[in-house]
Design brief:
Blueprint: H1 3-14, H2 24-31, E1 46-50, H3 59-63, E2 67-72, H4 75-87, E3 94-97, E4 110-116, H5 125-138, E5 139-150, E6 161-164, E7 167-169, E8 180-182, H6 187-194, E9 199-210, E10 213-223
Parallel strand pairs: 1-2, 1-4, 2-3, 4-5
Antiparallel strand pairs: 5-10, 6-7, 7-8, 9-10
Helix pairs in contact: 1-4
């Protein structure tokens, strides 16, 4: 899938009904009492949202006084994110062009990194490993990763073509047609990859059925 396709998606969405709210699952995991090793999130800490979309997942951290950063895959999308954030009085969020395997930040910089339904776009095991390593690089020694990724029972896979090696090509779905996903078929597989780079790895799963859509996501939180 091209950067242009994502740019058009953002341009169309900003003119209609782009999300103003953060991921409910993310808020519950990071601010609720579901983790055995809950992260410490305090004013002045740095949080990065990789593939930040419209900046909505940064909202709960912004209001708590954390220094918020977001990256997207093109400068055109960044301009759209800036507009969305300005409408919510969040212009102080620091935005940059970057991607999961190439983040424009120094080593040991962030207290928390959010990868919310982003990493599966890496499309291969090699790229997944590269992304997880890059996330680790920019995290502080005691920093942590919150990650969500599409599970195998999600509606998006119902019409996708199986390519082998945990890879699917999206088809007959939406503007992502042709995109290759790398999926984790269970929590153990996700933990297997995270254990290569992180400690205190905790995983979970969120499944919902909304009308005709099956939503399936794996969730993880881990420390560097």
């Amino acid at each position: 899938m091209s950067i242009e396709s994502w740019g058009k998606f953002h341009q169309d969405r900003i003119q209609s009904n782009y999300p103003l709210w953060p991921s409910e699952a993310m808020v519950k995991v990071l601010f609720g009492n579901y983790l055995e090793n809950k992260p410490r999130l305090e004013r002045g800490m740095r949080v990065l949202d990789v593939g930040c979309g419209f900046g909505n997942n940064l909202l709960p951290f912004y209001v708590k006084g954390l220094n918020c950063f977001g990256c997207e895959i093109s400068s055109d999308i960044i301009d759209i994110v800036k507009k969305a954030l300005a409408e919510r009085s969040m212009s102080e969020v620091d935005l940059a062009v970057g991607e999961s395997r190439k983040l424009p930040y120094p080593d040991n910089y962030f207290d928390l990194l959010i990868s919310n339904n982003v990493v599966h776009y890496e499309g291969s095991e090699e790229n997944i490993i590269g992304a997880l390593a890059e996330y680790r690089r920019v995290l502080k020694t005691e920093g942590s990763l919150f990650l969500m990724t599409t599970g195998p029972e999600h509606t998006i896979y119902q019409t996708a073509q199986f390519l082998g090696g945990h890879r699917f090509q999206v088809s007959n779905y939406d503007f992502r047609n042709g995109e290759i996903y790398f999926y984790f078929d269970n929590e153990k597989k996700l933990k297997f990859y995270l254990d290569k780079f992180y400690r205190k790895v905790e995983t979970g799963r969120l499944q919902e059925k909304l009308m005709k859509f099956n939503l399936d996501f794996f969730i993880a939180h881990a420390y560097k």
